[in-house]
Amino acid sequence: MGNAGLRVVLAEDGVLLREGLAAVLERFGHHVVAAVGDAEALTEAVDEQEPDILVTDVRMPPGFSDEGLRAAVDLQARHPRLGVLVLTQYVAPTYAFELLEADGRGRVGGLGYLLKDRVGAVREFVSAVERIAEGDTVIDPEVVRQLLRRERSAHLLGRLTPREREVLALMAEGRANAAIAEHLCVSQAAVAKYINAIFTKLDISGAEGHHRVLAVLTYLRN
């Protein structure tokens, strides 16, 4: 499936933000097949429309706790190819872990967790939507930075060189080797060597894709 013309269900209780997100996605050639304001409506919309990706707030009516996140996790269990991008106003790594750890058997849809502030960078936001629809994992850089700043993580990460820490942060954001190489202006072979060194020093089992991101984030959390 190409990126052009994705079918999107959008769930956001704030009317202005919901309409703004819909307008952005439509401008880039995607189709918002449903735009709703509560968790029950988002569940019904995904079951009915079977979109390529769901973009949802964490906190939704009626309880404004984590209804959007819970609905997204349940829906991806029923629709394994559904991409899910969860948006949140606050940096809450716990929500990111809950989303990633709900990895059901046979799930192939991508996962994303971004701060709403990131939506202001329009092309970055749309790129994230497209990557997730293709099966990638995208984690907000600020969530990664907070995990890296934690005291225990900082102590354990002392095993790594400064460049290896850079690579680890980019891995945790969900970037593929090619994207890391481009960002750091090094070869992909060099990136592969850094990653092997990181996994060895941190005793993380080798993994790819979503599982690679989960392994890295789990290490940082623990």
Sequence-ordered SSE layout with sheet pairings:
Elements (H helix, E strand, L loop, with lengths): L6 E5 L3 H13 L3 E6 L2 H11 L3 E5 L9 H12 L4 E6 L4 H9 L9 E5 L6 H12 L3 E3 L1 H9 L1 H6 L5 H11 L4 H8 L3 H15 L6 H13 L1
Parallel strand pairs: 1-2, 1-3, 3-4, 4-5, 5-6
Helix pairs in contact: 2-3, 8-10, 9-10
How would you describe the overall organization of this protein?
Keywords: DNA-binding, Phosphoprotein, Transcription, Transcription regulation. It comes from Streptoalloteichus tenebrarius (strain ATCC 17920 / DSM 40477 / JCM 4838 / CBS 697.72 / NBRC 16177 / NCIMB 11028 / NRRL B-12390 / A12253. 1 / ISP 5477) (Streptomyces tenebrarius). Residues 153-222 form the HTH luxR-type domain. The protein is an alpha/beta fold and 222 residues long. It folds into two domains: 7-139, Response regulator (Rossmann fold), CATH 3.40.50; 143-221, Orthogonal Bundle (Arc Repressor Mutant, subunit A), CATH 1.10.10.10. Helices cover 54% and strands 14% of the residues. The protein is built from eleven helices and six strands. It has helices at 15-27, 39-49, 67-78, 93-101, 122-133, 141-149, 151-156, 162-172, 177-184, 188-202, 209-221, and strands spanning 7-11, 31-36, 53-57, 83-88, 111-115, 137-139. The N and C termini lie far apart (36 Å). The model has no long low-confidence stretch (mean pLDDT 84).
List keywords for this structure.
222 residues, alpha/beta, Rossmann fold, Arc Repressor Mutant, subunit A, 2 domains, Sig_transdc_resp-reg_C-effctor
- Average pLDDT confidence is 84
For the biggest sheet, the summary is: 6 strands, parallel
Rough shape?
globular
- The assigned CATH architecture of the largest domain is 3-Layer(aba) Sandwich
Radius of gyration: 17 Å
CATH topology category name of the largest domain: Rossmann fold
Catalogue the unreliable spans: none
Number of helices: 11
Helix content: 40-55%
**Beta-strand percent range:** 5-15%
Strand order of the biggest β-sheet = 2-1-3-4-5-6
**SSE sequence, one letter per element:** EHEHEHEHEHEHHHHHH
Structural class of the helices, strands and pairings? alpha/beta
Count of domain modules: 2
Q: Using the coordinates above, name the CATH class of the largest domain.
A: Alpha Beta
How many β-strand stretches?
6
